[in-house]
């Protein structure tokens, strides 16, 4: 097995390694059943960190190219995806069609055909890998979605039946690209209640808030353009920037989010096209930017004529006033979009975190210049958000039904946070620390010095508990001293036990 | 007004002109209320065809940058979209916030910030321009959607209520990226009935078939890559290829679609990454490729290792056996995907043309290599098609309900075609000719020599009837001798009168 890594390349070593291995597997150089070298051995041979090999192998496992068998090693899987053949069994003797009689037809040379854009894309799905873990029950702090029990089944059924039995809704007609006017109006009203001055023409309904990131990338990013992000951030956004060949630069963070005191230096040096930020209940760190930082961020962005994408997926989920004696905001944080009115901020949010991701409905609030451009681009993407989803969201927003559900949710989430923090206080090993989030899904845990998140994850998976390692969110993919716990995903009764198991796995 | 056009550039002159004018309007060089020169005068001054100026002005009208007032000329519109201000009236005397006190804040320099990708995008919405025409009733052969009366309201209501009252469907859960397995299975079965050997893992549910084009462009096109298309084709696909900076080359057509006898020459010369084709009931020409051409297309594509995107949006809508004595296929045409099994063909279809575009649900049938890559890319776009839309489509496919609806539809469409053809036979001017489609939406009319489609359209709009001019679909945007009639959009009772009015407008 020949492998060449380029240490001067900007591409992380683990991705280079995964790429080399992938190429050799896809091309058949490494045949089905080939046993890959053990991680330590390959790491020694290549003179790289063992984590690099671990991550590369994990990547290929997620792509179903290789698999590990306990005690036996890691093997190249059969190419069960290389045929496009009929579902029915193939006839043994006869040749049924002219095509089957041409054994010389060469299959498409996929690796040559795929674009640079799509080759730059790598697909982390550690959450899926976690779920698939041996098929046994697992306490899952990894997946970024709510506990299924918190999805409001009855509410969704009621509003759906209401929407679909109505004759106003006959034929599920085509929607304007920007969304149905009534829904845009209700979303604008919803945003005004959050302190954002806007009206319907500032709002476009999206097929999830990630579509907003994707459309903004298409609308604004030329190859080589710089995007500033929080050093640890939502990794599909990084994927999106990376695929467009943007230069991604991470701004350091502390417990209050992005270090805006450093921002002017970054802007002066890198002249970013935009800053992507999650200022409220950040993913993955759970941090919330105080008002003074928000103002500083806006001032710097304006000065450098740099746009801001404010991702507010979690902003609705404020747990409420902090208990006496505890720090924290006594009021729900006002979005950046509510503090800026010249058009620099493009605000994104979604119903995925408050209702269900199955709705695939989010929205953007932005200057009409942006709305118009995104609508033009979207004409050739999905045209508009599913009419049925829009209609369900319209019913949800009417008469405050969603606000009521969010209230129930945040009361439960606050309890979950308190349970998780209490468990951490009880079981944490020396040197561990964590934030106490004021809303959203995530607790960000710092491991003791010298303890690596991927090692802890390995041990935890064996025990039946998972989380997301910090490297997944890190711009440079090097952070191995943090773990993200999504406290709203596991069953509430499992939180304490899960955290105890994680703390025990720390060493 | 200074204007410079570059005749050597590959960019059509009308787009250069629109771009120059847009820049001057957006930058304020041409102020609100500025009166643009009359079309003839500007055409003479620039030494271009009048059509070029007409098209450029139309483009800017569609973008709401300019407007014509009857008898007064064409004017720059006020910039009513440049503010992002509050919906409430602004206070007159007091300055309510620190931000409002900073009159020095410069608005984002939008034209500098937008990407090359999005600037390459131009937005034709002639159909919308047609609909907006003076607000008066119009016989609309332009819009590419079915007559609202043909959307099966009762069926949609029944299946929706069935789906949403079911407890199987509680909480509208997240879907796998590729779609719910049951729906993929039903779609595979549906495709097998069309003669395409495939199974569920060859199928991905899409948010409309255009999303499939967009994802394939991302997956395969590097800037400068060549895409072969029919000389007249679905224009959003052209937009998608253009935005990715592909080199688009049109292959000549005749009444049987793409001239596959020329294809090898094109492949040898341009080495296309893929061929985009609508072989069945083509948009806009209504033509259908015979089996021999299909085979030739596949053979050439394989030889040059070039992929094929088969867009089959209309393939379901076969009108049935031709009447005795008339030419045409006695059987429903088999898709290219059914004639090729090495993976070169990527097949796209949709429920938009058979049920309603509001569902935003289509599908792709392709090699698992393609499905996997598209799924990875889609992870950062819209993740999956709306759960409610998928569920409705699942119910529609079950128990042959959709097949039944399509049967009703095609009987009605065949009658519409016969009415339209009879009207053409009765009213056509000398030198006009047209195809007789075997399915789908479109009749393609060739105008007498020297008659220009845009002139006819101008006259028709005054009379209250519209269609799409051929230039919209033409790769080079120069075709001015054809018009596309969507015979399924106007009310059936208006077809004869509409066609008579069009024929009268021919001169």
UniProtKB/TrEMBL annotation, chains A, B:
Sorted UniProt keywords: Aminotransferase, DNA-binding, Pyridoxal phosphate, Transcription, Transcription regulation, Transferase
InterPro entries: Aminotransferase_I/II_large (IPR004839), HTH_trans_reg/aminotransferase (IPR051446), PyrdxlP-dep_Trfase (IPR015424), PyrdxlP-dep_Trfase_major (IPR015421), PyrdxlP-dep_Trfase_small (IPR015422), Tscrpt_reg_HTH_GntR (IPR000524), WH-like_DNA-bd_sf (IPR036388), WH_DNA-bd_sf (IPR036390)
Cofactor field: pyridoxal 5'-phosphate
Recorded GO MF terms: DNA binding; DNA-binding transcription factor activity; pyridoxal phosphate binding; transaminase activity
Pfam families assigned to the protein according to its UniProt record, in alphabetical order: Aminotran_1_2 (PF00155), GntR (PF00392)
Domain HTH gntR-type intervals: 11-79
Subunit structure: Homodimer.
Matching PANTHER family: HTH-TYPE TRANSCRIPTIONAL REGULATORY PROTEIN GABR
Family membership noted in the UniProt record: Belongs to the class-I pyridoxal-phosphate-dependent aminotransferase family.
Full protein name: GntR family transcriptional regulator
Organism: Bifidobacterium felsineum
């Amino acid at each position: 097995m020949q492998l060449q890594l380029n240490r001067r390349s900007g591409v992380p070593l683990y991705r280079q390694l995964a790429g080399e291995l992938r190429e050799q597997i896809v091309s058949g150089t490494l045949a089905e059943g080939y046993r890959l070298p053990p991680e330590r051995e390959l790491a020694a041979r290549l003179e790289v960190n063992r984590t690099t090999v671990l991550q590369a192998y994990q990547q290929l496992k997620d792509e179903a190219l290789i698999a590990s068998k306990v005690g036996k090693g890691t093997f190249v899987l059969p190419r069960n995806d290389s045929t496009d053949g009929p579902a029915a069994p193939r006839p043994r003797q006869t040749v049924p069609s002219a095509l089957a009689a041409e054994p010389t037809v060469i299959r498409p040379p996929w690796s040559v055909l795929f674009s640079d854009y799509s080759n730059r894309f790598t697909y982390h799905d550690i959450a899926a890998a976690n779920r698939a873990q041996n098929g046994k029950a697992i306490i899952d702090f990894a997946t970024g979605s709510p506990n299924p029990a918190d999805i409001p089944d009855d509410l969704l059924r009621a509003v759906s039946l209401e929407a679909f039995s109505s004759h106003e809704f006959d034929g599920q007609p085509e929607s304007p690209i920007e969304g149905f006017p009534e829904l845009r109006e209700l979303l604008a009203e919803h945003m005004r209640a959050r302190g954002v001055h806007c009206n319907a023409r500032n709002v476009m309904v999206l097929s999830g808030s990630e579509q907003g990131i994707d459309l903004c990338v298409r609308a604004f990013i030329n190859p080589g353009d710089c995007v500033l992000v929080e050093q640890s951030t939502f990794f599909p956004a990084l994927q999106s920037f990376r695929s467009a060949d943007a230069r991604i630069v991470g701004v350091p963070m502390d417990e209050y989010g992005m270090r805006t005191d450093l921002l002017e230096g970054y802007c002066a040096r890198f002249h970013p096209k935009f800053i992507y930020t999650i200022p409220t209940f950040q993913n993955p760190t759970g941090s919330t930017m105080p008002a003074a930082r928000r103002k500083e961020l806006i001032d710097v962005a304006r000065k450098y004529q740099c746009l801001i994408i404010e991702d507010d997926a979690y902003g609705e989920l404020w747990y409420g006033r902090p208990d006496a004696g505890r720090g924290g905001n006594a009021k729900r944080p006002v979005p950046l979009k509510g503090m800026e009115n010249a058009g620099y901020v493009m605000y994104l949010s979604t119903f995925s975190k408050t209702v269900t991701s199955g709705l695939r409905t989010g929205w953007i609030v932005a200057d009409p210049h942006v709305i118009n451009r995104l609508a033009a681009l979207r004409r050739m993407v999905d045209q508009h958000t599913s009419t049925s989803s829009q209609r369900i969201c319209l019913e949800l927003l009417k008469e405050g039904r969603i606000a009521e559900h969010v209230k129930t949710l945040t009361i439960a989430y606050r309890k979950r946070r308190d349970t998780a923090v209490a468990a951490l206080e009880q079981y944490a090993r020396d040197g561990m620390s964590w934030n106490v989030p004021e809303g959203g899904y995530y607790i960000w845990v710092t491991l003791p010095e010298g303890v690596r998140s991927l090692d802890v994850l390995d041990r935890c998976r064996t025990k039946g508990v998972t989380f997301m390692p910090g490297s997944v969110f890190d711009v440079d993919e090097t952070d191995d001293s943090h773990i993200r716990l999504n406290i709203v995903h596991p069953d509430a009764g499992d939180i304490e036990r899960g955290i105890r198991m994680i703390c025990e796995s720390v060493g």
